[in-house]
Design brief:
The structure is a homodimer of 334-residue chains. Chain A has 334 residues and is an alpha/beta fold. In chain A, 35% of the residues lie in helices and 23% in strands.
């Protein structure tokens, strides 16, 4: 691999994404992406007693499904990267504790899914691993309870709020295979523009997405139209518009190729999620559900995934802090 | 690099640890390791209004000190790996938000410091980065508040409890330099032996430390005495004894070379921490403070760091869950 420009790493023997899996909750199963997911659950508990245990079960079963689909034995997976939004990333560590695969816990908030794929790619091309598993999860109920208010309170959500996606996405990556290939990654810096509204995550994360996007394009000397699709993780309607504006101000017209998984996940009219979807599972399930299939079927040939994360918690908001954002980008080509 | 045995990765051109830094709190500054740390704080707040902000300041200043000591410009650091024990790893992300270095947040509970060094080493040898920063922090007051009880309650601690170390350790690693070198790493699997007592972390994490230690020794066909010191992160007195027993049952006599940073940090008689120290900063500060200097001065030539983490949170304990443990090992030689 080679370092190119400021922050980009380009692979000489790009790792393959062998297979993927996605499981989503009932609301996501009623949305426009429904038919692309492996499983749409009928309720938020999935037979468990708590939302946290349900989220653990979701990531566990998503990972099992990805492994089965990949035809790679669990014993041949050398490393696992996983994380989630819950305090101390418990849904990953409890969900994957029986996996018996060396485990690197990661936390990039909603950027976790792509953070894992960045690190997994480096491990594969370097020879540190032949096969790598990456997974991330989120759950509307466990996230609301932890980051905002008890669901039982029936609190009103402001128009800028986003709806945490219930679900999990998992990918199995390998040294060898027929693609799609991870050809380059651009790990992002923390960007904090002073946004303090914890109900406007899109605005807080958009500057980080913009920073990573422009850095990626400059580092590789690419126009936005090099890609069939540039996809951010969970900026929602508000954050998406901010990225388009910021890019336009710098002379990049991204409108024709750019979209956001938070915008794609729910139907704006009928599902009432205000500014759209969010959470680690937002880009995790939409990539694993929709975009991976588009690449496999050659309907798309090059995409850029930019997963965004808001690196705050409930305490920092109470203490009056602003919200640091981050975004990691990964170029996937067939 | 090469994969050897079940889980170990051995480096062909081992990355160098260029320099390190450590800042600790007042209690740690009164302990037996005091003289090895760069800074011992006079109080737990360091001029900040909250413990969380104080912890962010500690990791920030530790990282700044490590960068200054290394003589590598911040602009030449290609990647940063950092994490901590606070919900959503806020002390790292807020402490390092002005750093302007591509940032991978990691969460391995108290194994975070060595997890970062594992990933950093892979990135350096592979060419993904020339210089990497790894850091981790913990803070007694912010951790007690979050994981156990409000400090103001003056709750009694059981004899198996450990004392979270206030402080931060940081290392700068590089492609080139005179060592000490990171020669091999053994990333660990999650091990859960069913321990449910959140006041006995040493017992919960010891089986993971044992598993990673024995795997490392077998993978590389080494006896424990290959190392001048085998050092676990924060098992404390109880966990340390369990590891010695487990190893002995498998025919490994590690007593002469093995110690634990939780045991080393505080004076058993005068400092009353019950089973010893814990927290990400425990191995972070003792490696950066004490062991790095032993290696630099050639008083030790080969050490094995095994950082251990308990992958639980307050909610999992309330929900009656057991405590999954993890341990990552790293071999450092001159």
């Amino acid at each position: 691999m080679k370092r190119i420009g400021k922050q980009t790493i380009k692979f000489d023997s790009p790792p393959t994404i062998v297979d993927v899996a996605s499981i989503v909750g009932p609301k996501e199963g009623e949305g426009p992406m429904s038919k692309y997911f492996d499983v749409c659950l009928e309720d938020e508990f999935w037979g468990e007693k708590t939302w946290e245990k349900a989220e653990s079960k979701i990531i566990k079963e998503t990972v099992n499904k990805a492994i089965t689909k990949s035809n790679i034995a669990a014993a041949d997976i050398d490393l696992c990267f996983a994380g989630d939004l819950l305090n101390q990333c418990i849904s990953s560590s409890f969900g994957l504790r029986e996996l018996q695969v060396p485990f690197f816990g990661i936390f990039g908030a909603c950027s976790t899914f792509v953070e894992g794929m960045c690190l997994g790619s480096i491990c594969i091309e370097s020879g540190a691993a032949n096969n790598v598993l990456c997974a991330a999860s989120s759950h509307f109920c466990s996230a609301e309870k932890q980051f905002r208010y008890p669901l039982e309170l029936g609190n009103q959500r402001p128009p800028s709020a986003q709806w945490t996606v219930t679900g999990s996405g998992a990918v199995i990556m390998s040294k060898e295979g027929e693609g799609p290939y991870i050809t380059a990654i651009t790990p992002g810096k923390i960007v904090d523009m002073g946004i303090k509204d914890a109900n406007n995550m899109g605005a807080a994360m958009a500057p980080a997405a913009f920073d990573t996007l422009i850095t990626h394009l400059k580092d590789l000397d690419r126009a936005p139209t090099y890609y069939d699709a540039i996809i951010s993780g969970d900026l929602g309607y508000i954050g998406k518009d901010i990225v388009i504006d910021l890019a336009s101000n710098k002379g990049y017209n991204i409108k024709s190729v750019y979209n956001d998984c938070g915008v794609l996940m729910f139907d704006k009219q009928s599902q009432d999620t205000h500014s759209g979807g969010s959470g680690c599972a937002c880009i995790g399930t939409i990539f694993s559900g929709y975009f991976f299939k588009q690449l496999k079927q050659r309907k798309m040939k090059r995409i850029l995934l930019i997963a965004t994360g808001a690196l705050m918690n409930a305490t920092t908001t109470q203490q009056g802090e602003s919200i640091p954002g981050i975004a990691h980008a990964i170029s996937i080509e067939v």
